[in-house]
Amino acid sequence: xxxxxxxxxxxxxxxxxxxxxxxxxxxxxxxxxxxxxxxxxxxxxxxxxxxxxxxxxxxxxxxxxxxxxxxxxxxxxxxxxxxxxxxxxxxxxxxxxxxxxxxxxxxxxx
Length: 110
Fold this sequence. Notes:
Elements lengths: L3 E5 L8 E5 L6 H18 L3 H18 L2 H14 L3 H23 L2
Antiparallel strand pairs: 1-2
């Protein structure tokens, strides 16, 4: 039987939860990757600026706190290569610039 994660989004972005079936607990890093993807997806489809900004902030928090910059970069690059929607491309480019800044900051601090 294949293991899978069920994802529930309710209310606000802070209510994002990942529930696992067939597995006692999902690795923290993998759960964070799932959350990162969900917050980015939510930002990309958000109709309101406040929800988009909140979702992007949560995306940044997850990426920054768990060192998921490489994972985020792969995700953003994939979306950037395949999308033709200028709005989505703008969000992807904005997040890519954020990741570039964070990488420079982390390199200069070491």
